[in-house]
Design goal:
By secondary structure, the protein is α/β, with parallel strands linked by helices. It is about 25% helix and about 30% strand. It has a single domain, classed as Glutaredoxin (3-Layer(aba) Sandwich), CATH 3.40.30.10. Strands 5-4-3-8-9 form a five-stranded mixed sheet. A hairpin with a 5-residue loop joins strand 8 and strand 9.
């Protein structure tokens, strides 16, 4: 499924955040970025992952990282999710799956015998020059901060 590997240039993206502002990868030039893809706002695993990153946010900032979450949810759903859990980072609405496709994380999934298309939960750590430093395909939703910072 993945076509990207560590050491590759991160694909550029352009998507609206919860404020309706368009964000691009180039907005993060000179900064380190944790770009995490998750299936759906306000579901148990996605909430645990977002709250882990929220709780670790000061540690990420101290190390020069910004965080961006990406899911196929709408801007309106992102606003509710962000407010409900007081998330200090932006969430991108990728309703057309353009960002997920660029990163190779949109594809066929199976759940309870049903096959459907969706996001494969994956995190990319991108350096100041837009190069992928790490790819985490097996995300520990409850301890994602630890998984990222203690490696």
């Amino acid at each position: 499924m993945f076509h990207l590997k560590e050491g590759d240039k991160a694909p550029d993206f352009s998507a609206a955040n919860e404020k309706g502002q368009t964000l691009n990868l180039s907005d993060y030039k000179g900064k380190k970025l944790v770009l995490y893809f998750y299936p759906k706002d306000d579901t148990p695993g996605c909430t645990a992952e977002a709250c882990s990153l929220r709780d670790g946010y000061p540690k990420f900032q101290a190390q020069g990282y910004e965080i961006l979450g990406v899911s196929p949810d709408s801007v309106k759903k992102h606003v509710k999710f962000q407010e409900k859990y007081k998330l200090p980072f932006s969430l991108l609405a990728d309703e057309d799956h353009a960002v997920a496709n660029a990163y190779g994380v949109w594809g066929q999934k199976k759940f309870m015998g049903r096959t459907y298309d969706g996001i494969h939960r994956t995190t990319f750590v991108i350096d100041e020059n837009g190069v992928i430093e790490r790819i985490i395909a097996k995300v520990d939703t409850g301890n994602h901060t630890g998984q990222l910072l203690e490696a």
